[in-house]
C-alpha cells in the first residue's frame, strides 16, 4: 500500500515505463491526427506496386494505394479496437470482480462462468466465432470483450477477497456503512492500480489477437488495420523473393511490434511498482 | 476428492466445447444457410440455387428437430465421424489425423525447448536482479516476445530462407524426395523443423521467462532463503536446493496451460511456413470456407488443449507437498 | 574470555528517504558460555545487529567497524571463509519458523543439510544424527517427524526444528532472533526451558523485545535504542535496579509493574534526535542532554550506561 | 447489559463429507454496564471468533446475543446497520484498521459523516477527538503509513469514540505494539472507559494485561469457556487445570 501511494513518483523514475508511455503517446497522436498526417486518402489509387519515391514514401500496394497513408490510417483501426475492447472488458471485469469478491454466493456462480471461459482455448474460439459472424469492427470488439473480461474478473476478485478481510473493512461495517458505500469508497480506490495494469495487459493482448485474426483474413476488409495490411502482403505471390517486403510488409509488422512493446513496458513498470513482493522494503 | 471435482470439471468443459461447435452455425442471425454462404472476405451473399441450399440443409440435418440434431452430432463425434471435407473431398477425421503428427512434432519440440530455456533464463535474471545481465535479458525477451509469430516467421523466411538460403522455407519435408536411410529422413524433417520451431520458441518464451523471474524474485525474498544462507550453504546450493523448486511449483500449471498458447501460435507459424499441420489446415479451411473441416479442426485443437491443461493440473497435485498432504 | 567482540559497528542502509542508521556505533562483547540478551523495541536495529554478525545483510549496505570472533575479523573474511563459520561455528535461529522453514522440503532434510555441510557425514549417518537431534529438542516420535513437511507441525514444533537446525553443527555461538515471538504462553515457557538447556555449554546472543523471556534465560542484558546501546549489565541488576531512564521506563511499562508508559514514540532511524537520542522522551532530561551526545560510561561494578546522570 | 446464551460457531470444510470445526461451542456469559470482561486463551482457542460472532461480523451457528434485551442475531440487515454503531470493535493490527488511502482527518470524519452529523460541525469534532486520544493536530493531514502503530491505534480509538458506543470488543488491541507503547494505549483505553462508562470485552493472550484491564476474567480453551470469575479468584484460586497451567508459570520479573 505504501508503494501504491508513491506510485506516481516511482513511475517517473522507472525508465522502462517512461519509454513505453512515450512511444505509446506518439502512436495515439498519430491515430488521432491521421487525416492531417497522411498525404493521401488511403483508398485513393495510384500506379500499383510502385517502389518508394518522393511521392510515395513507402510506395504503393498491389491495388495502387499509398502504403504510408494506409499505415497511418491503420493505426486508427488497430488502436481503436484495442483500447475500446480493453475499456469495456476491464470495466465489466472490474465490476463483476468487485461484486463477486464481496458477495460470496454471487461470486461462486460468476467464478464458475469465468473458469469455463478460461479453460476454453481463446484463440481457436475467437477464430471460429469470427468465421461465423459477419465481419465488422464492432463484431471483432464484441468477440474480444467476450474473451477479455474473465481474466480481469478473476484477478480483481482475488484482490477484493483479500481486501475484504482487512480490519478496516470490518470497522466500516461496524460503523453502519452500507455495502455499496464500502465497495465504492474503500475497496475500489485500493484496487484501482490493479485495474490500470489489467487495462494495459488487455490492450496488448487485443492488439496481438486482432493482428492475428486479420492476418488470417478474418478482419474487417473495409477498415484496414496493420494485421490486414500484413495479410494482403503475405498473399502477394512474390513478397518473399522480391524487395517489396521492405516497404510493404516491414512497416506494419514493426508498428505492431513497437506498440506491443510499449504496452509491455508500461505494464511491466506498473506491475513492478505495485507488486509488493518485487519491492520489499529493507529493515 | 480433489481429483473427482477436477475430472468432472474437465468433462463439463469438453461438453461445452462440443456444444459451442454444434451451436455456432445454428445460432447465426437469420437463416444459417445465408450466413454460411456469405463470402467471408466481402460479407456479400453468394448466390446459390435452391438445390444446393437444400443439400447443405440436409447435410447439417437442419430439417430435423434441434434435440435430435444434437444427439446425432454427439453420436457422430463418439464414432470419430467429424463430417466430410468439401475441399479435400475426404472424411474430416482422416484429413485431421494425417496432419496431427506434424503439429504434435512442432509443438512438442518447441514446448520442451521454450520451457527449459525460459525457466532457465528467468531464474538467471532473478538471481542477477537489477544487474546489467538481468536488464539485458529482460529487455531482449520482452522485445522478442512482442513480435507476432507470423511476422517473425515472415522475417525468418526472408532472412534465413531467401537471403542466406540456409533453411527450407516451406513444408515439413522436401517434396518428392526419396530417402536413402531413416537417418536421412530424420535429418530432412529436422532441417524443416528448425525455422518454425525457433519462431514458436522465440515468440512464446516471454511467458515462462517472466513467470519464473517473478516467482523466483518472490522466493528469493522469503525467510527460508535467509535460513539457507545462515546455514552456510553456497549460493549455488541455495539456488539449486531451495530457490528453484519453490519458484517452479506455483508456475507449473501456468506454464503447462501455455501449451494452449503454443498450439494457437502454431496456427500462424504453420500457415506462414506452409507446414502441413493442423494449424495450416485450420487456415486453409477458413480460406476455402470448408466449414466441416474448420469445425473438426477446432474441436481437435480444443480437445488437445484441454487435455494438456488436465495433465498440468494433475501433475501439480502430485508435486506440491502442501496440496498432497493437505 | 571474550568469544565475540564487536567494535564500533555501524550498519547504514541507503534508501530513497535518506540513510537508515540501523546500527550506529555499537560495542559489545560476548564471553564464552555467556547468554547475552539484546533487548529493544521494534525498529531499534537489534535484528540488523544480529544479521550483520552473520553477514546476512544485502550488499548495498554500508558496514563499518569490526566484529572479532576468536581473533578473526568476520567483516574482512572472504565469502568462502565466512560461509564455513556461518551455520558451523556460529548458528542462527531466525524469527518466525513458519516462514523460515522451506515449505516444500522435509524438515529432516533441512537439518541434515547443515550436518552434511559442516560435519561431512554421508546421507545415512546424517539422517541418524538428525533423529538424535530431534529427540534432543524433544520432538515426539522423531523417526516419523523426520519425514514431515513443516506445515504438518505445530508452531511450537516448528520452533524446535529451528533450534535443532541451529544445534546441528554443534556451534559455539548461537544468535537467536526473537525465538519466542508469536508463541502461546505455555509453549513459550517450554521453548525457553529447552533453549536454556541446549545452550548450557555455549554462548548465545538472545535478541528479543520480550523482557520476561530475557529475564528467564539471560546472564547479561544489553539494552538497545535507536541504533545504539544504552545500558549493559547483569540480568539481576538491570531488573532490580535499572540505571538508564529508558531501561527504567521499559520495565515500568510492563503490566506486572503497573503499566506506566514512556511518553512519545521511538525516533526514526533516519533522523535521530540531537544530543542524547532518548532525551525527548526522558523525564530526567537536562540541558546537556539536548546538546551533547553521551558516551558509554563504565561504572565500578562492571555495568555500563550511556547517560549524563552517571557521567 | 450484554448477555450471550449458547453461542456456537461451527466451520465446515469438505464438500461431500462435511467436517465441522467447533470454533465456539455453547458459550454463555453476561457483562454488566460499565464492566470489563477479560477473555484469555491461546491462539486458535476461538476467542477472536467469539468476539466477532457477538458483533455478527461472522454469522454464528446458534445461540442468542442479547444487548439491552434485544437479540442482535434476530435483526435483519437494515436494523443491524442502524444498531451497529452502538457496538464497536478494536482490532489487533492498527495499521490495517485504517484505509491506507485516507488521511487521518478523513478517517476520523468518516464515522461522523455516516452518522449524518452536520457538515459544519464535523471539522470541530475531528479536532476534539484528535486531542482526546492524545494526538496532535499536525497528525490530521498524514496518512496511516506515516504514523507509528501506537499512533494509528489512537486514530482507531478516535473513530470508535466518534460513534459514542456503549459496548466495545477489543481484540488484542496492543499485541502488535511495543511494551512502552502498549502501556500508553492500555491506559488510554482505561481512561476513556472510566470517563464514558463503557462496557468492554477485552480479548488477549497476555494474562498480565488482562489482569490489569479487567474486572472479571473468562478463560477460553478449545472453543469453550472453561472458567470465569473475579480477577483475584482466577489468579489465586484457579479451578480448571488449564487455568492453573496459565497462572502457575508467570514469569517473575
From TrEMBL, chain C:
It is an enzyme of class 7 (translocase). Keywords: ATP-binding, Cell membrane, Ion transport, Membrane, Nucleotide-binding, Translocase, Transport. GO terms for molecular function: ABC-type nickel transporter activity; ATP binding; ATP hydrolysis activity. It is a peripheral membrane protein. It catalyses: Ni(2+)(out) + ATP + H2O = Ni(2+)(in) + ADP + phosphate + H(+). Its main location: membrane. GO terms for cellular component: plasma membrane. Its EC number is 7.2.2.11. One of its GO terms (biological process) is peptide transport. It comes from the Archaea. Residues 6-251 form the ABC transporter domain. This is Nickel import system ATP-binding protein NikD. The complex is composed of two ATP-binding proteins (NikD and NikE), two transmembrane proteins (NikB and NikC) and a solute-binding protein (NikA). It is found in: Cell membrane. SUPFAM superfamilies: P-loop containing nucleoside triphosphate hydrolases (SSF52540).
